[in-house]
Amino acid sequence: MEPSLEAEIGRLHAAVCSALSDPKRIAILYALHEGPKNVTELTELLELNQATTSRHLKILRDRSLVETQRDGVHIYYSLADERVIEALDLLRGVLASALERRKTLAEVMTVRT
Amino acid sequence: MEPSLEAEIGRLHAAVCSALSDPKRIAILYALHEGPKNVTELTELLELNQATTSRHLKILRDRSLVETQRDGVHIYYSLADERVIEALDLLRGVLASALERRKTLAEVMTVRT
DNA sequence: CTGATATATTCGCATATGCGAATATATCTT
DNA sequence: AAGATATATTCGCATATGCGAATATATCAG
User: Fold this and answer.
1) What kind and span of H or E run contains B83?
2) Is B33 helix (H, G, I), strand (E, B) or coil?
C-alpha cells in the first residue's frame, strides 16, 4: 500500500514551499542571488547567529535549493535554481498587490468617517 | 523605533510563502485555478474535514490569496491572483529538476556498486 | 601533532501549526 | 419563529519549527 505518488509529490512540493516560509531563508536566497557566499559572510550580512545560519542552510540544501562548494576551510553556497528567485519575485508581487488593495480600501473608509 | 519597514516586508513575504507550505492548501489553490468553488465542494473534492477546509481557507484569505463571494447560503472562493499558480508551477519545476538530479546520481552510484 | 578558524550538530525550551470534535453563526425556507 | 444547511470558530492535543548556547567536526598552518 504505497501512499499515492500524487500525495507524495504534493508533500514534496509543500516541502519546497515551506523552505521559503521564513524571512531569514528568503533573505539568504536573495543574497545568494547576488553571487555565492560562505557561511561567515552570510552570517555577518544577515546579522544571524552562526548556528542559525547553518541550520537554515541545511534546510535549503536538503530541499536542493542551494548547492555547496568547498574551498579550503570555507564552504561556498550558491543558488541551485534561479527559478526560486522568480517564484519569490512573483509572490512579492502578489503581496504588493494585496497591500495596495487594502490601502485603497482603508483610504476609502477613512474618507467616509 | 518602528521595526524597519524592510524587515516587516520580509515577514509579510514569508507569510505569503508559508501559506503555500501545506499540501492541502496547495491542492486548494490548484482546485480554485480550475474555477470558483464553495467550501462543501472543496471539502469533498479534496477529502478534507469541513473544519480543516475552513481553517485552510481562512489562512489563504488572511494573506489575500483567495477571495470570497457569497451566494445565498454558499460562499464561493476564487483565486485572488493567478501569479500564485505561476509561482507554484515554477517551484514544482524546481522540485522536478532536483529529483531528476538525484535520480541520475542514484543511477550512477548503483552502476558502480 | 597542535592550535586556530570555519562549519555543522545537538540540546532544551518556547512558540507555531495542523487536526478532529464540538459548538457557534449565518442564511434560507416554511 | 423553527428547522435545515453552509460555513466559521473554539478547544485540546500532538507534532513541527526556530532559537541560542554548547559542543562536535573538518581543514589548514606551523
Assistant:
1) helix B83-112
2) helix
| Chain B nearest CA to A111, separation (Å) | 23
Q: What is the DSSP letter of B73?
A: T
Cα B78 versus chain centre, distance: 13
State the SS3 of chain A: CCCCHHHHHHHHHHHHHHCCCCHHHHHHHHHHHCCCEEHHHHHHHCCCCHHHHHHHHHHHHHCCCEEEEEECCEEEEEECCCHHHHHHHHHHHHHHHHHHHHHHHHHHHHHHC
Residues of A in contact with B100 (CB under 8 A): none
Please indicate whether residue A5 or residue A99 has the higher confidence score (pLDDT).
A99
Q: How many whole angstroms separate alpha carbon A106 and alpha carbon A108?
A: 5
Mutate which: B9, B17, B104, vs A, most A CBs within 10 A? B17
**What's the pLDDT band for B1 if we cut at 50, 70, 90?**
very low
